[in-house]
Write a structure and sequence with these properties.
alpha+beta, 8-stranded antiparallel beta sheet, two-stranded antiparallel ribbon, 4 helices
């Protein structure tokens, strides 16, 4: 009887560890990454398992506080029961550490340069999306420090 109980428990624990270590961004195309925003929290947990870490992130205003599910390669910002923002290590041909000139080339001529960050509106979805890439300084030699995909109307 103990063996019957032990095997399913071992399988469950092994699956949980595997899900936590699997990078989110590997093997996903851009369309799949864009679908993260608006995803139900239950679907996120079902598809990727429990997060590596769960943290609270304080906003400038109380209503801007977020719960963040951290996985390898992506952080999911949750409002109520949906993802409203994702922080990527790499997406849309841009990665942390890339130079600003390379980012501008990768994102095309519709990108809006705001010095320490660039914005790229993304259309064709059920709601507006914005890609924001932050840089270490305002010069063209600045490096990517953060990449966010979010709903600007949220």
């Amino acid at each position: 009887m103990k063996k019957i109980f032990f095997l399913p428990l071992l399988f469950f624990l092994a699956f949980s560890v595997w899900a936590q270590n699997r990078p989110i961004y590997t093997g996903l195309n851009n369309e799949e990454q864009l679908s993260f925003v608006g995803m139900m929290m239950a679907d996120l947990l079902e598809q990727y398992g429990p997060p590596r870490t769960v943290v609270a992130e304080r906003g400038e205003e109380v209503w801007q506080d977020d719960v963040v599910f951290q996985y390898n390669g992506a952080d999911f910002y949750i409002y109520r029961d949906r993802v409203w923002q994702v922080k990527f290590a790499s997406t849309q041909g841009v990665s942390n550490g890339d130079r600003k000139t390379n980012v501008m080339r990768a994102l095309g001529n519709t990108v809006e340069d705001n010095g320490d960050h660039v914005l790229l509106p993304i259309t064709g979805k059920d709601w507006p999306l914005m890609l924001r890439v932050n840089f270490s300084n305002t010069s063209n030699s600045g490096q990517v420090t953060a990449i966010y995909l979010y709903r600007p109307d949220f």
